[in-house]
Amino acid sequence: MAFARPSSFAMALIVASGAALAQPTAPEGERAWARIEQVLTSPRCINCHPASDRPTQTDAMHPHRMSVIRGPSNHGAPGLHCSACHQERNNAASGVPGAPHWGLAPRSMGWVGLSSGDLCRRLKDPAANGNRTVADLVKHMAEDALVLWAWQPGRNGRGEERKPPPLTIAELGEALGAWAAAGAPCPQ
Ligand code: HEC
Ligand code: HEC
Q: Residue 36: how many CB atoms within 10 A of its CB?
């Protein structure tokens, strides 16, 4: 009884000060977004997130050779599925990259050509992103095999190492945490 008031008051103080300390400002959130965007638009990611029906390849992001197309289920034409060439791991001998469930991101997840603000809003739009919350997006980018492949992209057919995205996975995780904590703000 005697403790009821002080303890709930103390709770309120802890909650209030915790919120004040933990809540980054909108400008901090937008700075974090700018770093996230550098990853999303890097070749390793965006080669699979085109606005068209063709994946792109290499740092030059040219259309995928051998007339590879999206196909009815984002896994290639009926006679030429991605898995005909892309296995669960990178193939060091042939230079074909690989990871589990290799496929093209659905059209609604095509990011090429969007402004920073439009990319940010598209990413957050449940109608476009596979019905994901911001927390789901953060989780996807921490765990998905195709996302993680980007930091182990292997060598191309000429034996050259593909470049990973411009942030480390840890840096991306920090940026995502700061962006989400600031309420996932998008630039204009
Ligand atoms: C081999 C192709 C491939 C690569 C490489 C790839 N993705 Fe994707 N991505 C997909 C596919 C396919 C989906 C849809 C899967 C789903 O909805 O579960 C997807 C979905 C996503 C989503 C959730 C949907 C959305 O619109 O937000 C995010 C976020 C994402 N990818 C981020 C990345 C990032 C970041 C990278 C690079 C570090 C990357 N992807 C690399 C194929 C790829
Ligand atoms: C006939 C074989 C073949 C098929 C089928 C195929 N690919 Fe590829 N793919 C390759 C080869 C070979 C490379 C490596 C090119 C290089 O790096 O020089 C490649 C590279 C890629 C890359 C570039 C990775 C990077 O960041 O540099 C992406 C993305 C990709 N393929 C997606 C797909 C998707 C999605 C499908 C199915 C819709 C598919 N591929 C079907 C052979 C194929």
A: 23
Take residue 45 and report the two structure tokens written for it. 């990611």
- Return the exposure string of 155-179: e unless at least 16 CB atoms fall within 10 Å of the residue's CB, then b: bbeeeeebebbebebeebeebbebb
- Cβ–ligand 2 distance for 146 under 6 Å, the answer no
Distance CA 90, CA 109 (A): 24
For the stretch 117-138, pLDDT in tens is 999 999 999 999 999 999 999 9
Considering every ligand atom, which ligand is closest to the CA of 159? Answer: 2
Q: Say if ligand 1 is within 6 A of residue 147 CB.
A: yes
CA of 71 to the centre of ligand 2 (A): 14
